[in-house]
Amino acid sequence: MSIFRLRLPMGKLQLPDLDGFMEEPMLPAAESEPHPLTGKEWDAMVKAAGKLADRELALVNQLLRVTGLRSAELVSLHESWLVEEGKGVGDRDPGPEGEASGAGSGGERRQGAGAGVLKDVDLMIRLTKAVIRSTNLPVTVKTRLGWDDDSINIDEVAERLQDIGVQALSIHARTRAQMYKGHSDWSHIARVKNNPRIKMPIFGNGDMDSPEKALEYKNRYGIDGIMIGRAAIGYPWIFNELKHFLKTGTHLPKPTLENRVEAARNHLQWAMDWKGEHLGILETRRHYTNYFKGLPNFKEYRTKMVSSDNPEIIFEVFDEVLAQFGGFELV
pLDDT tens, 304-328? Predict the structure, then answer.
């Protein structure tokens, strides 16, 4: 499977931005196989919502460079901002690691941006075309089926995006009105994929939470790859688990409590490195419940984690959890 000059293996897994959860520090810091949080396990997107200052744009490019991540998600209603950001993010080697992703039609809704442009497909096309013209990197888009059940327009959107040069499309199988409620309907994704006019790779997203479902949906809907969202919150091991199952038909061992503590510790450290101690601590708090899901009587420890502004105290609580629950098997 090719996206512009990029060669990708079939059955590619992706991580979308989930507003408020998939911020930059959740992404890996370097190549440290076989740790579950590594650049090789993620094809992730760095979100640029609104106009980026020069320093912020430099940080985005630094993150892309250091981690080897392949995407930068641009979300804005201002064509001039998107053009400048596309130029800035595209200011790097467009070789096998280069991909700019997003272009104002993802799940964001700030000031009508992101999925908001599903109400105005002409605007979506104009904004996306502006980004394509501004960068030497391949541009991909992620979007939803439409604004609501009465305005599902993904067929038109897919054809028009391909016509202006979009290299791949990721589709969340819900409307914007659904948000994350109800069931995703992948039949719409299958219809787009089976459209004889569509030649670009199509990725599916929505309710993807198990290796068995990944294999079933890949075979049933014929998609080129799978985008995993909420199932990765506090559980980054899902990428390795799905890839292993697709390749071998067998399950990997579940992460141990030691693995979970290590991941939470790294996440907090990366958050502080990226956004500073205060903001890093605040933004990581929402993840602890997911990292330690299934531990009995965890509330006492979570309360300590989310009420302290001192990273040393939080790291000590991680050690307490390990000492108290060491050997406990999480399902």
Answer: 999 999 999 999 999 999 999 987 7
The torsion angles phi and psi of 16, rounded to 5 degrees, stand at: -85, 165
Can you read off the two tokens belonging to residue 292?
A: 């330690």
On whether the CB atoms of residues 234 and 287 are closer than 8 A, the answer is: yes
The dihedrals phi and psi of 141, each to the nearest 5 degrees, come to: -130, 145
Architecture of domain 2-248: Alpha-Beta Barrel (3.20)
Domain boundaries, the chain: 2-248, 257-325
pTM, rounded to two decimals: 0.72
Which pLDDT tens digit goes with each residue over 190-225?
999 999 999 999 999 998 888 999 899 989 999 998
Query: How long, in residues, is the chain?
Result: 331
Inter-residue long-range contacts of 283-288, CB under 8 Å, 24+ positions, other chains counted: 283/23, 283/25, 284/25, 286/20, 286/21, 287/21, 287/26, 287/233, 287/234, 288/234, 288/264
Residue with tokens 């993620």: 42
Q: Which residues contact 99 (CB under 8 A, 6 or more apart)?
A: 3, 4, 6, 70, 71, 137, 138, 140
Q: Tokens for 106, please give them.
A: 């993802």
> CA 134 from chain center: how many Å?
23
Could you tell me if residue 330 is left (phi over 0), alpha (psi between -120 and 50 degrees) or otherwise beta? Answer: beta
Residues of the chain with pLDDT under 70: 1-116, 331
pLDDT score recorded for residue 12: 54
Quote the CA–CA distance of 56 and 77 in Å, as a whole number: 19
CATH of domain 257-325: 1.10.1200
Residue 159 tokens read as 């054809």
- Predicted confidence at residue 330, as pLDDT, reads 75
